[in-house]
Amino acid sequence: MFLRILLSHLILALMIISLLFVFIYNSIEISDKDPFRLLLGFLLFSFIIAIWISALLYRNLTNPLREIANIAQRTAPEDFKIEIKAKSSKEIDYLISALNYMLSRIKDYTNKLADQNTELNDAFSAMEEGLVVLDSSGKIVIANEGFKRYTQSASPENRFYWEVIRSNEFDEMVKNIIANKSKELREITLNDKILNCNGIYLKSKNEILLTFSNITEIKNVENIKRDFVTNLSHELRTPLTSIKGYAETLEDLVDDEGKRYLDIIIRNTERLNNVVKDLLILSELEELKELNIEQVDLRLLIEDVIKIFDQKIKDKGLKIKFAIKGDLPKIEADIFKLEQVFINIIDNAIKYTEKGEINISVREKSNSDKVIIEIQDTGIGIPQKDLSRIFERFYVVDKSRSRKMGGTGLGLSIVKHIVLLHGGEINVESTYGLGTKFIITLPIKQSK
Hints:
By secondary structure, the chain is an alpha+beta fold. The chain folds into four domains: 106 residues, no CATH class; 87 residues, PAS domain (Beta-Lactamase); 69 residues, Helix Hairpins; 150 residues, Histidine kinase-like ATPase, C-terminal domain (Heat Shock Protein 90), CATH 3.30.565.10. A five-stranded antiparallel beta sheet has the order 2-1-5-4-3, with helices on both faces. Helix 9 crosses helix 11.
């Protein structure tokens, strides 16, 4: 490149000197024998002048370009501290100024990115939770200190996850995420710790992001509470049964005033018995490892549950409607647990509906292997502020009404627990004063 520039400059200089020679030659008087010598002199002079002009142009043009090229090469490995010095040529100076501005902006952006990268790395390393990224083959790409601590592995990077975490549950979870390109949440036990593992598929990079939270202490506290409730419930059951039995025996031995007090004793003893019974049901559900799955016909199951409440419905003058929309397949479920769900919800609907009707509908969810059961009443409804808490244990919207109705505050907790055990979900919609609707979604087939 530089040789071509030099050659072009040399040709230009020769052309200029030739024109100058012609002009001078035509302007002076010479003898017949002088032209050759004069021509030779002028040619020699022209050659010297051309070399000098070319060297000058070469230095002023090619040297700055060579320096710019060298700086560009130094910039490639991120050396942005350099600056190009201004030259005499205005065009070159303009180019140098533009390049210096570009280098300055690149340096600023690079520093910002470096600062952000440092902050992210610090946060990444300081996280108490474990975090790991796997590629599509299952190889560990990134792992923070939390992950290394949970797995007791100093250098897990560039190793396959099954070499670091030997857990069938985790292996199954990762395979499901890769196969379904989705997210999944599981509890796994690793090195005597119970970890809440949350995994999500990153479509943009075809990778899997997994986080690990230590919930060992939470689980230990839950176990202590569950054991306490179970033991207390068993201990209360016998004396409560005795109190109720003796109170019923005394009914024939006391006057009307005494019977009034005995009725209070029997009613409250029955309420305590219901609380104990519901606590034991919850405790059993929490310890349940697997359901007794069988093929369940929802039409027959719900019709049988409705029959249980025939008398209550007649006594309150209510109507109950049950409809199946479309062809409904049998579902895989624990029939006795599912029966408990419908009993609790329909019982609540009857308790809190003074007039009107209760509508039950079942349909298959379109484009999905699920069924939707809706149970709607025209009762008193639930205030908006209480909707988010109605599935909590012992939470009641109206305490005085609940005591009057004999409610324990555990029925909906049991319902939600059973629905979740089936891999389903339950939601509630309500307008205070107009009624409540429970929407239960259940899978047709249980995951293996």
